[in-house]
Amino acid sequence: MKILHICNSDGGGAGIAAFRLHLALRAEGIDSWMAVRDRKNEACKVVTLDSPAAKIARRVNGRSERRAKLGLKEASGVLWSVSDWRTFNVSTINRIGADLVHLHWINGGTLGIPDLRKIEAPLVWSLHDIWPLSNGAHYLGDDFDVGGEVEMRKVTIERRVQNAKEKCWADLNLTWIPLSTWMAEQVKSSAYSYSYPVEQIWNSVPQSIYKLGNQKEARKNLSLPLERKIILFGAENAFEDRRKGSDLLVKALESLPRRQKDNPDTAMFLSFGGDGKERKLSNGYTIKDIGRIEGDDSLAALYQAADLFICPSREDNLPNTCVEAVSTGLPVVSFSVGGLSDIVVPGLSGCLIPPFSTELLSQAIQKFIEGELRYDRDEIFEFALNRFSPERQVKEITKVYSGALGRFKNRLEL
């Protein structure tokens, strides 16, 4: 069985998850390939989708799309994509000769809506966000009606996406793979699901890396204090992406009792994925951002060194950071949104806060610092070991592949 994964990149949130699946399949002897527009990994059967025609199409149509959605992300708080144009990448995909094509995050000029019906192999699609199910938004976002030009752009984009999907997606050989229970519910309620088969499967992490570690050694290696509780937050573009909720975290931390200069600090607040700056809070505390973390080993060591991970997202599916955190035994406190409840099991792997109570989030953090809120890292690790293992993911996903190939064969025989 030859599988081809399609993703905009093999880096970034969706790209990392797709690349990990690709490697997990290869580790089990499956002939897995990956085709991306923006390649980060040179080996491991990862090829680039970037023909001269595709570059021209992306430059021309990408410029037009950026103009069409100007101001929408700022108004709604989430990313929007149109992708109703041909990318000229399908011929490259078909030449690879895969038995099955596994779609991931396909926007940014990787594939367009009209391209999917030109792919010769059956399709499965891992839903990293709701764009495949929506009229252009990658997440539900804020309810907004700003009026004027931005509202007109929103309506125009929604019509364009709706027309393209209704025209091109009603007769595909497709199986949906929502990555969380929440995303599975979005499939059920979407007009674009077209009653295609649905199989919910969680992502995995490389558990030889994301595992229990020696906290003391991790802190020594990272030059972090041994005696303080380290509260960690991290995301790609951590302080720029409104959906990730850094402003809510700051508000919660500023509600903590004021720092006493004469007393030794009992907590340290760290973040990663931001701009590397130190942020001073109104109550005397600081959030020290250590910037982008390169490599799984370094990121795993940071989780092992920490005591608590905070995920203040306004909306999220199955964030890699939280899966990685619990896989090292690190408890997670998050708002009860999206697919976080698949990762954060109250009393076991962390604490879910009603959205978007910064007061209750602050109280949970304070209780943890004071020792009133405790978690067993061994129990969290065992929970994650079972739920987010590559072996479990490969077993479930190869079953989906077999079913999709069987339906495709039956369809050809009709």
Please describe the biggest sheet, giving its number of strands, its sense, and whether it closes into a barrel: 7 strands, mixed
Share of residues in strands: 15-25%
Estimate the mean pLDDT confidence.
Answer: 94
Distance between the termini: 23 Å
Broad structural category: alpha/beta
Query: Which range best describes the helical content: under 10%, 10-25%, 25-40%, 40-55%, 55-70% or over 70%?
Result: 25-40%
The CATH topology of the largest domain comes to Rossmann fold
Number of strands: 13
What's the CATH class of the largest domain, please? Answer: Alpha Beta
Second rung of CATH, namely the architecture of the largest domain? 3-Layer(aba) Sandwich
State the fourth-level CATH superfamily of the largest domain.
Answer: Glycogen Phosphorylase B
Strand order of the largest sheet: 9-10-8-7-11-12-13
Please tell me about this protein's structure.
The chain is α/β, with parallel strands linked by helices and 414 residues long. It folds into two domains: 2-204 and 390-413, 3-Layer(aba) Sandwich (Rossmann fold); 215-387, Glycogen Phosphorylase B (Rossmann fold), CATH 3.40.50. The chain has helices at 12-27, 52-68, 72-76, 90-96, 148-168, 181-189, 215-221, 246-254, 296-305, 320-327, 358-370, 377-387, 390-413, and strands at residues 2-9, 31-38, 46-48, 100-103, 123-127, 174-178, 229-234, 267-272, 278-280, 286-289, 308-311, 332-335, 350-353. The longest helix is centred in the last third of the chain and has 24 residues, at 390-413.
